[in-house]
Design a protein that fits this description.
Layout (H helix, E strand, L loop, with lengths): L14 H15 L10 E7 L7 H11 L1 E7 L3 H10 L8 E6 L3 H6 L24 E13 L12 H4 L8 E4 L5 H14 L4 H10 L3 E3 L2 H8 L10 E5 L9 E17 L6 H11 L2 H11 L2 E2 L8 H6 L12 H20 L1
Parallel strand pairs: 1-2, 1-3, 5-6, 5-7
Antiparallel strand pairs: 3-8, 4-7, 4-8, 4-9
Helix pairs in contact: 1-2, 7-12
Length: 344
């Protein structure tokens, strides 16, 4: 779940400290080590927010004989671009991090080869050939700092955010530079329709919405829930309250993002890549997705950490998303229209 960029992830790892820890862990996991006899290597291309414990990769290497080398390539949008541009000479064996807002482009460009991974969740299957497999889910929603409202009733809907009682309270990320910003824009288009979303953003602008470049600035600098900003409403994730006390997600404003992985066409080690994909869907890997990448596991039946079950349970009745083909066809035009309305 889930541009692109994915600064969000990207997005929230028990704030900055946890983000530093998981990044450090991932860096350790990608250090070059001497190749052992009989050992094979699989190159995993991913976005900058991918995080996994070194110990988990070491255990997989012991049991499978496969060393996973992680190559990071910017946010989800940059990753998709690079995969398309290098498809004739792929830069890895498997890619993770193409999300539902960019997936149709990767599929149209035939970047991935078919493979039905073990444990795949069919609910998020994009095509009949299983070229992309859902790994995690992230619901982008407005978050509210309850005490920061200072006695004003909590909003619940998109419409509420344009009410004058919430003037100068909302901060959002630009859809031109941020994955959650793009998801929030798509959520408003889905909710208000092609003929209504522009008017809604005009009302938000008149109500003092603040636009910043990315999630880090919005959440950790402008949002009052972190103790640093002054605005009690922010576009973030349904999972964010697990890291930030006295906050909650407004589930009626959610837009679902799904992040995928797939074996690359022309991979040097396609069989090894298939095993890595199966590993990413294993119970063990999926159970660590919340604390490592602050998103929900895509595999069914994987329990969330206890803290998440209390403060950030996965929304079960929120499946709001636009068809990937519609997003791919209209994304640039929608963002340009948004720029003219909000920043022009």
């Amino acid at each position: 779940m889930p541009a692109q960029g994915r600064e969000e992830r990207t997005v929230l790892r028990t704030a900055i400290a946890l983000l530093a820890l998981v990044t450090a862990g991932c860096s350790l996991a990608t250090e070059q080590q001497p190749q052992q006899a009989g050992q094979q290597t699989v190159t995993l291309v991913t976005h900058d927010s991918f995080a996994v414990r070194k110990e988990l990769l070491d255990e997989f290497q012991k049991t499978s004989g496969i060393k996973v080398e992680v190559r990071k390539s910017g946010d989800a949008g940059a990753l998709t671009n690079q995969l398309v541009l290098t498809k004739a000479n792929p830069i890895g064996d498997i890619a993770y991090g193409v999300d539902s807002t960019f997936a149709s482009r990767a599929l149209n460009e035939n970047v991935f080869q078919p493979y039905e991974a073990q444990g795949a969740n069919k609910r998020y299957q994009l095509d009949a050939t299983n070229r992309l497999t859902a790994i995690d889910i992230g619901d982008v929603c407005v978050n509210v700092h309850t005490s920061g409202l200072k006695g004003v009733a909590e909003p619940t809907t998109f419409e509420d955010l344009a009410d004058p009682k919430y003037k100068d309270m909302l901060v959002v990320e630009s859809p031109a530079t941020s994955s959650p910003g793009l998801a929030f824009l798509l959520g408003t288009i889905l909710h208000f329709g092609e003929d209504g979303w522009q008017g809604y953003w005009t009302r938000l602008k008149a109500n003092g919405v603040k636009v910043v470049s990315g999630w880090e600035e919005a959440y950790n600098q402008e949002f009052s829930g972190t103790g640093k900003g002054t605005r009690p409403l922010v576009v973030s994730y349904a999972s964010s309250p697990a890291a930030t006390p006295d906050t909650k997600a407004l589930l009626e404003t959610c837009y679902r993002q799904v992040e995928y992985a797939g074996v690359l066409q022309g991979a040097k080690n396609p069989e090894g890549a298939k095993k890595v994909l199966d590993f990413m869907l294993s119970q063990q890997f999926q159970a660590e997705v919340p604390d490592q990448m602050y998103v929900y596991p895509a595999r069914e039946g994987v329990a969330l950490p206890e803290a998440w079950q209390k403060s950030a349970p996965m929304p079960t009745d929120v499946e709001a998303t636009l068809p990937a083909q519609d997003v791919d066809r209209n994304r640039e035009n929608w963002v340009n229209q948004w720029r003219s309305l909000v920043q022009g």
